[in-house]
């Protein structure tokens, strides 16, 4: 099978997609993309797609599939192509104004949920919310929590607000520059952030689909100030957290120990560095007492 003209049914179309994508992405990632494509175009689950293998592939379906394949060929992330991402059991809208939420960030959310899901009425702040992924996941999984979220990007906040509406979540979204924003004393029980932490010099080793499509202001920090966001967050969180408040941060493994020392010198206690699912030092947690 060489082209779309020879495709008759869904099974043919799946084989066509696999032939195009496997040489670039491998079998596992290709199968994941096929599931996403049919979920997006037909609202089918993986099982439904298989069940419907004998159905004819319409000209519209073939045309839309070819468009997706061409955009993938140009290194555009499939999450931006489809405008959707699955994060902690939620389907969220994303676009090029927001980072694509990663599995590591889901892990950080899960750490918080496991610790606090039996608590009630917690006040939570998400700094640098982007699509709202962290704020929404915590709002949905920590009972009766009051969640606020800050971002400097107007466009990102439009996406985050839409996600909150779609999920019927009440989040207080705040447009602010964290370097000019002060938190009221003892306003929050938990402050969480996945701030920019990749040094500009590290960009040479990154994939094109990240460098050419994801927002650089949400990714990179200057080489001469790798902890610039963490220092500011630690400063305002020290007064903004309640007496027993907790800080959760996603981090660059290169600076894990330096960040731990900085938090200790700022007055935090019970500071833990935690590895991610890939066994890299990816998170720091700290309490005020």
List the helices and strands and how they pair.
Layout: H1 10-42, H2 46-51, H3 59-73, H4 78-82, E1 84-87, E2 90-93, H5 103-116, E3 123-127, H6 133-141, E4 146-151, H7 154-166, E5 171-175, E6 188-193, E7 198-199, H8 208-211, E8 220-221, H9 228-240, E9 241-250, H10 256-266, E10 269-275, E11 281-287
Parallel strand pairs: 3-4, 3-6, 4-5, 6-9, 7-8
Antiparallel strand pairs: 1-2, 9-11, 10-11
Helix pairs in contact: 1-3, 5-6, 9-10
Walk me through what this model shows.
The chain is α/β, with parallel strands linked by helices. Helices cover 43% and strands 20% of the residues. The chain contains ten helices and eleven strands. The strands form three sheets. A seven-stranded mixed sheet has the order 5-4-3-6-9-11-10, with helices on both faces. A two-stranded antiparallel ribbon has the order 1-2. Strands 7-8 form a two-stranded parallel ribbon. Helix 8 links the parallel strand 7 and strand 8. Helix 1 crosses helix 3 and helix 9 runs parallel beside helix 10. The longest helix has 33 residues. The relative contact order is 0.10.
């Amino acid at each position: 099978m060489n082209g779309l003209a020879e495709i008759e049914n869904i099974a043919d179309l799946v084989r066509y997609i696999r032939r195009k994508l496997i040489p670039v992405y491998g079998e596992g990632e290709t199968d994941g993309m096929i599931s996403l494509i049919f979920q997006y175009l037909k609202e089918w689950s993986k099982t439904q797609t298989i069940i419907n293998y004998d159905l004819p592939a319409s000209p519209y379906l073939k045309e839309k599939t070819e468009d997706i394949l061409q955009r993938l060929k140009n290194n555009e992330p499939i999450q931006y192509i489809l405008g959707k991402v699955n994060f902690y059991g939620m389907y969220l809208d994303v676009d090029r104004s927001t980072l694509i939420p990663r599995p590591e960030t889901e892990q950080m959310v899960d750490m918080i949920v496991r610790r606090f899901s039996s608590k009630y009425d917690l006040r939570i702040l998400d700094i640098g919310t982007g699509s709202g992924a962290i704020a929404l996941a915590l709002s949905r999984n920590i009972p009766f929590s009051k969640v606020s979220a800050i971002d400097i990007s107007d466009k990102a906040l439009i996406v985050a607000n839409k996600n909150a509406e779609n999920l019927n979540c009440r989040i207080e979204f705040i447009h602010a520059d964290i370097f000019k924003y002060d938190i009221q004393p003892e306003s929050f029980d938990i402050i969480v952030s996945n701030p920019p932490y990749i040094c500009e010099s590290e960009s040479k080793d990154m994939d094109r689909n990240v460098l050419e499509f994801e927002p650089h202001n949400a990714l990179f920090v200057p080489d001469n100030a790798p902890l610039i966001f963490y220092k500011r967050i630690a400063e305002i969180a020290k007064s903004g957290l309640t007496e027993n408040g907790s800080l959760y941060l996603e981090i660059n493994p290169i600076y894990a120990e330096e960040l731990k020392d900085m938090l200790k010198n700022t007055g935090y206690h019970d500071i833990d560095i935690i590895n991610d699912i890939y066994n890299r030092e990816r998170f720091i947690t700290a309490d005020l007492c």
